[in-house]
Amino acid sequence: MTDKLIIDGSHGEGGGQILRSALSLSAITGRPVRIEKLRANRKKPGLAAQHLTSVRAAAMLCDAEVKGAELGSQTLQFIPRKPVRAGDYFLDVAHAREGGSAGAVMLVLQTLLPPLALATGVSNVMLRGGTHVDMSPSYDYVHDVWLPTLARMGVRAELSLMRSGWYPVGRGEVKLRIEGAEKLLPLRLEHRGPLRAVTGRALVANLPAHICERMAAHARYLLEQAGMAAKIETVVMKAACPGAGLYLTAHYENSLAGFGAQGKRGKPAEQVAEEACFALLQHYRSGAALEQHLADQLILPTALCRGESVFGVERISPHLVTNAWVVERFGLARIDIVPAADGTGFVKILASG
């Protein structure tokens, strides 16, 4: 496809997911895009370091011609010139801004993975930046929840943490290995089945060990009060700056669900545990197969499958609805979002391929 697609970056939720999904799909389809009013609904509109790194990453995959790839830019033109190539790639979010950045490398990874998952051959990607950053998927979430769910669709990817990176310095490092697949399989997750286990990790970097021990102990207590036994590891690690967080995974018979909370100066370890446990219990009581974040992160991959995918979701978020809108603009799938009276819902993706 050579006709340029114009995308309104202020549509719906109006955040960075519009950019990332458009970049992935443009690289995959070869269709040029122009995104206007980028991140218009954010306090600081336009491209931040993490978004600029995603643009550079996608451009590397398909030798794209890019215009407007600058910090703060609210208009971007992206024109793929070649099919996506498997290979070895390196990206550092710190290179996108003078003085460095703790921009979320997991979001850059989520831009790269769909195109490389369909490319012929093996790719090795090294990413540097923030691995555990608020308001974005953590390394633990991607490793424990997102990638295992994609594996059910035929995505063959392995992720390893070389060094953790926290706000505000970053400098974490992850390695991703992806073996391209000829096709992806539809995903059906209408029902999660019974809860089998809850696992987790309480992490601290450059901080006393008692902080992660308190997070883990309080989380175990809260979940035990709800009738759940949880196996939570405590991990003390080194990083370029201090950081802390708790990351939990609910293992259901048919699905996985991930929850996390970040620590910060002045925030008690117990509060971090309460935030992560509250999110887990809220999802558990909803009865839905997927938590809201995983659902919106599966919209794009399922649109690349052959056939119909269906999943139940705890909450139909503006993020999910906006991401579905972007995917439909490329004509790859029809997406039906069916809300229920209790706030949960189902998402049906009928891929046209």
TrEMBL record:
Active-site residues, record numbering mapped to chain: 319
Domain RNA 3'-terminal phosphate cyclase residues, every copy: 12-337
Assigned EC number: 6.5.1.4
Binding site for ATP: 110, 293-297
Chief location of this protein within or outside the cell: cytoplasm
SUPFAM superfamilies: EPT/RTPC-like (SSF55205)
Keywords: ATP-binding, Cytoplasm, Ligase, Nucleotide-binding
MF annotations from Gene Ontology: ATP binding; RNA-3'-phosphate cyclase activity
GO cellular component, one term: cytoplasm
GO terms under biological process: RNA processing
Catalyzed chemical reaction(s): a 3'-end 3'-phospho-ribonucleotide-RNA + ATP = a 3'-end 2',3'-cyclophospho-ribonucleotide-RNA + AMP + diphosphate
Positions of the RNA 3'-terminal phosphate cyclase insert domain: 191-283
Subcellular location: Cytoplasm
Alphabetized Pfam families for the sequence: RTC, RTC_insert
Cited function: Catalyzes the conversion of 3'-phosphate to a 2',3'-cyclic phosphodiester at the end of RNA. The mechanism of action of the enzyme occurs in 3 steps: (A) adenylation of the enzyme by ATP; (B) transfer of adenylate to an RNA-N3'P to produce RNA-N3'PP5'A; (C) and attack of the adjacent 2'-hydroxyl on the 3'-phosphorus in the diester linkage to produce the cyclic end product. The biological role of this enzyme is unknown but it is likely to function in some aspects of cellular RNA processing.
HAMAP family according to UniProt: RTC
Family: Belongs to the RNA 3'-terminal cyclase family. Type 1 subfamily.
Identification of the protein by name: RNA 3'-terminal phosphate cyclase
Organism: Methylobacter tundripaludum (strain ATCC BAA-1195 / DSM 17260 / SV96)
